[in-house]
Every structure is written in structure tokens, then in C-alpha cells.
Amino acid sequence: MDASVLIVGAGPTGLVLALWLTKQGVPVRIIDQTAGPGATSRALAVQARTLELYRQLDLADAVVAKGYAVPGVRLWLGGREAARIPFAAIASDLTPYGFLHIFPQDEHERLLIERLAALRVAVERSTELLGYAEDGGRVSARLRGPDGAERTAEAAFIAGCDGAHSAVRAGSAVGYPGAAYPQTFYVADVAGAGPAFNGDLNIELDQSDFLAVFPLADGGRVRLIGAIRQDDGRDLDKLSFDDISDRAKRLLRLEVETVNWFSTYRISHRVADHFRRGRTFLLGDAAHIHTPVGGQGMNTGIGDAINLAWKLAAVLAGRAPDALLDSFEAERRAFALRLVQTTDRFFNVAAAEGRLAEIVRTRIAPIALPLAAKLEPARDYLFRTISQITLNYRGEGLAEGRAGAVHGGDRMPWVKAGAGDNHQALAAIGWSAHVYGAADDGLRQWSEARRVPLAVFPWEKPMGHAGLRENALYLIRPDTYVALAETAQSVDAVERFFARTQIRP
Predict the structure, then answer these.
(1) Which keywords appear in this protein's UniProt record, sorted alphabetically (predicted)?
(2) Which domains are assigned to the chain?
(3) How many CB atoms lie within 10 A of CB 44?
(4) What is the pTM of this model?
(5) Residue 194 to residues 85, 251, 282, 296, 423, Cα–Cα distance (Å)
(6) What radius of gyration, in Å, describes the C-alpha atoms of the chain?
């Protein structure tokens, strides 16, 4: 075979999948139809959960250094700022990344490509997937290279990370039900000045068309994102920035000096019927797509990649049965369905028409949102949802038990521990165990014999506030989700878990 995994598509999802697999010793090929990485981007936000996972490949610090941590969100009404919600007051005890981080997708891709190149893996550019078929225990794919010649590539598995019009999804005959939003979206990269160039995310509430200004790292440049309705009589495919900029300039008091680039696009809300079919996997926009409101799309694709990577590595190494790969669809498709429903509801409220919707946006929201931000439960819920740290796999086959407020399937809560934090012990990609308090000798001996690292943290009150239980045992998956939570340090319970799943850590 040419590689163990053929990855089609070199956006963030495909690049992250290639990085995580390569780091685990899995040979990959990654191809893309384009001649090079994009020079513009719609995706901007890197959520806290993504940054937490990026610590596994020493990526988080680089992304934070190259991007911009947004300190808060400002709501605008009638051409004036109506309210400000600071992020620092929301998430300082939930994650080391308690902010909205802006790092445009084109810059993000270049960083991932550099890291992949350092591992001696290059993206094969101007290479198109023409078709593929499963042939016994492998996939045989027909590729057209930059010279126009057709070649065959063989791999154990194929991963479709090739976007909403996925050739891999088409080749697997997987349905992609859903519908298009009635709005056309636009994005403009502009330089200028004005009160909305304040370093915060600025959202305008007056009109039923979504309108937001996202700050960028250099301070004098922002990304303007909005939605345009279909019923205004214009040819939306031929719009220019001048056609849509009046409202943004008036309601957000923008003084635009330079338009670096401008584009329009349509978006749908869809979830594929299957994320796995035989030796084929669908990830990112090839598997799910939804409104850009909330900055979830790119992060969800990256989450898909990390979820799948450790499972593929385990199966290819003979440390787990093929059935482990079924959990990719079970876990990630369930999340995608919830996400599409959530973003749909939010966008429909934000873009709804009518007198009632106008009252909610212009009179209730500017008062209710800042008040909600002062309430800890409301702040936590808002940040946990958007940042994806609330994502869990409870009730699935790789989740058992409960200790404190932490269930099997939950993200391991983040807490400060000594001079650092407990997530520092999760930097390596592999199984591990945590105890907050004291570990007994039997558990220590098991950890050494099984070569499963055991991290023991002296008990502190903040650990209880985070939902952890003193002296409980938490068995943690390679993607830093809790597989097993046990109030007693039961080695037998851990062994039963591995026997049931047939995983050898």
C-alpha cells in the first residue's frame, strides 16, 4: 500500500488528521485539488477546546501567539454601543484559553502545513480523486496528478476531508440531507477606523440580517461578516462590497479605507447519513455543514480528526478491533446533529423578521445578555457551549461510570494544579489515568505493568469545584476524554473496561 490512510482534502480537518496520525507513526498521504493553500478565509475562530487538544502536538502556544485573543463582545443598537460582555469574567476557571481566539483559516492552514512538513509529510497539490473502491482489506483510489496523468493509490482507509461537495462522500454513496439557508453570506477583509475597531467582537442588533465585525491581530484590520436576504431584487452573485457596505458603515460607524478582499457564499445545514461506510470516513464539511454563526465549523472538523486519529492508529497497530472505528460515527455524528440544531435555532432568532423578533433583538437582548453575563451559571453555559468544552460522549460504548460530577465520556475538567494544571499531564497521545488525592499501591503497580501513565495530584478545593472527586480514578482516552470514572481505585473495573472494548493500551 502507498499509505495506511489516504486523506483527501488539505484544509484544517485533513491537515490535523495527517498530523495526529503521523505523530502516532501511521503513514499517510494527503492530497488536495488546489495548487496551494488559500489566501482568504471565512473561518476565524479557534475555540478553547481546540486549543486544549492542540497542546498534544505543541501547537497551542503557536496558534495563540500568531492569532488574537478577543477580550469581549459588544452589542450595537441604533448606531451606538448598547452593552459589553467581557470574556475574562466568564471562563478563567474553566480552561487555560478563556477567550475567543481569532486565527484566520488561511494562516491556520499554513501553520499546520509547516508542522506537517517538519514531520516529512507534504501535501500533494493539484491532485484530484477521480474515484475509488474497496478491494478486500484495502482501498484502491484513482488519482489525477498535476501532470494530468492518472495513477492508482492504495491504502487501508480513505478519509474524506474534502468539503461540502466531497468526492469521497459521492464515491461512498452516502446521503447528505438538509437544506440551504435563504440568506447569502458575505465576508470582507477591510482596513479602516471607527469605534468598532476596538479589539472586541462587535454585533449589530438593529436589523434582521446578521452583521458582525471580528477583530484581527494587527488592530487596523477587521473581518466584516454579514447575511443578505434573497428578496431585495439584487443579483446576489454579482454583489460588490459597495453594494452591501452602507448598512455596516451606518450602524457600526465603520470608516473603511481599504477593502483587501470581498466574497459572497451560500451555506446549508446538512449532516451526512453516515460518517463511516466500510473503509471510508467523512469528516468536517464533508460530513456536516451549518451556519457560520458561533464559529463552530472548523473546530468541529478538527474535533472529528482527533477523534478518528487515535482510533485508526490503535486498529492499524493491532491494539483494537475494527469495531472501535464504529465509535467515530456514533460519537461525532451525534454531536454534529446537536450542533446543527443549536446553530439553526440561534441563527433563526438572530435573523428572524417581524415585530416580535425586532423587540427581542433591540429591547430585550441589550438588557438581558449583560445581566446574564453577571450570573455564573449563565456565563458558564454560554462559554461551555461555544467553546465546545461541554461536548461529551456520555452513553456511548467508550464511556463508563461516574465520580463526582464527572461522567465517563466527559472532557477531563481543567484545574490548576501546583505551578501548572492537570491538562499538562495529557500532552502525550495515549491512554493515561488520573487520581486527585492519593493513589494506592495496587493502582501504581497496575499502571507500571500496563505502561499506562498515572498522574497523581494532591487534593485541592478547586478540584472539587471542577466536579472531581477526591481519590477517585479517572481513566482517560488518547483524545483526553474520560473513558472510565470510578469512585474507588478499582483496577478490576479498568481491566473489565479494556476486556469489553478489546482495546490494548
Answers:
(1) FAD, Flavoprotein
(2) 3-64+103-175+272-341 (3.50.50.60), 68-97+177-270+352-390 (3.30.9.10), 400-501 (3.40.30.120)
(3) 25
(4) 0.92
(5) 20, 11, 43, 28, 40
(6) 23
